[in-house]
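Bench log. Compound arrived from synthesis this morning; before running ITC I wanted a structural hypothesis for how adenosine-5'-triphosphate sits in the protein. Inputs:
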Amino acid sequence: MTNTGQYILETDGLTKEFKGFTAVDNVDLRVQRHQIHALIGPNGAGKTTVFNLLTKFLIPTRGSIKYNGEDITHIKSAEIARKGVIRSFQISAVFPHMTARENVRVALQRKLGTSFHFWRSVKSLSGLNDRADELLTMVGLERFSDSQVADMSYGRKRALEIATTLAMEPELMLLDEPTQGMGREDVELVTELIRKVSANRTILMVEHNLSVVSRLCDTITVLQRGAVLTEGNYQEVSADPRVKEAYMGKAA
Amino acid sequence: MNTKIGYLIAIALLLVAPFAIYPVFLMKLLCFALFASAFNLILGYGGLLSFGHAAFFGGAAYVTGHALKVWGLPTELGILVGTAIAGVLGLAIGLLAIRRQGIYFAMITLAMAQMVYFFFISADFTGGENGLQGVPRGTALGFIDLQDNLNMYYFVLAIFALGYFIISRAVNSPFGQILSAIRDNEDRATSLGYDVDRYKLLAFVLSATLAGLAGSTKTVVFQLASLTDAHWHMSGEVVLMTLLGGLGTIVGPAVGAGIIVTLQNYLASGPLGAWVPVVLGIIFVICVLAFRRGVVGELREMLRKSF
Ligand SMILES: Nc1ncnc2c1ncn2[C@@H]1O[C@H](COP(=O)(O)OP(=O)(O)OP(=O)(O)O)[C@@H](O)[C@H]1O
Ligand SMILES: [Mg+2]
């Protein structure tokens, strides 16, 4: 698996059309290994759609996707996940009717190879509890192992989501607005968490909070109306008048 | 702990019940309790509304009837064959339906079940409108005479216990964990590397198989397999039982089945005989409007709140 190529993810002419409307337009994205890479852009720019294409929740109209040098354009969602690309969703993605520990165990248990075993007791999964609790501790949820997730706060759900994602030991994490809808305190927590978990892995994240982006991200790609507007580090991108315009046009 | 005591009491009651209540009625109750519990596996735990479970119940009923009456198989084997065929039928229908969601899933299962129903109407071996009558009960283990209602009752109780155990184990298994994850958030389960369709398909096949076990057993009890078993009314009734008892609770559907079967029997012999469907319909409406969690679900919620 250890591929030493510079880019972990490359797209070539990635395009998605919805009934004549081009949501993603000829995007060539290069994500460098071990970087935190941001994908930013005004609302409706096509960021989430890019994520959906990368993880095959949507089928590209044109273009190709390479992961670790391998063409994954025609591979299904679940298999892409098994190759080490794990995504989060713009709204928190947890399993509300399970406990926090069970949530994390869902990610851990696939390796046991017993996920189709309907005759085996659920107790056979308790060997995973220590690892699950370790991951929960890492995101500051050690006190909530046995809590029903539906009752947890929004910030904690997002933290749990990250713990579950980490349980997959992903090589590439795709985070869609991990701090959206959070108060300042939770934003700080999650920012630090992302920094912590970025060691030895690559992160591609969509983020509206530019202070988070400036603190975390090595490379930033700006998307506008589906196409790449510019790319560079924070200084370069924030100095670009076209970027300001793209944001002002909408946000002001 | 509490559940253990609850189960012990239930077992004790079921063991002495035939001395107080007519065994054939109890057997009917157990067959439908098993049917509803099996159905709950796909609706309550898989989150998929099948509107075609009569095909599995009725299909197994006919096959077992034929196997016992025409082929002269031993009772257990006859039941096993019927159950297996329901599983195969479940696989076939499941493969076609499982990719669909919501109302489309319900429609495909209903359409397929109607095809099965029309096949039973036209096929010779089913005896058409008359059904398959006079199916021999035979013996259990080759020496226990099942013609005796008390023997038959304990035989049915054993089958029910086995089916019920398989269902509750499946719910509380590694597989059950993935199934509830899928029900809670299918996209997230996919993005954690699970091929969700395969898990849903297994749940559907298990559900169909156990619904078949209920149908086969029912044939032996009543020595009859008929079109009623495969009619879409039956698919609707099992939805009602499950919702009334409590969706996604382990005991709920069995309780729901108990209530419906008791009501049907009670009403049928009284002055309201012709109004049974209307009464059931009213119960359904009340249940949907006022007790969304079903009887067991509401009780559990009350207990949870009072602590
Ligand atoms: N399934 C779909 N069918 C039709 N149009 C779609 C679909 N998904 C997205 N779009 C459109 O594609 C465009 C890009 O949407 P997308 O969700 O990718 O934007 P985004 O950059 O993630 O925006 P936001 O910052 O609001 O999350 C929008 O105009 C949206 O309406
Ligand atoms: Mg978005």
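What the model suggests: Chain A has nine helices and eleven strands. Chain A has two domains: 1-84+170-252, 96-168.
ITC booked for Thursday regardless.
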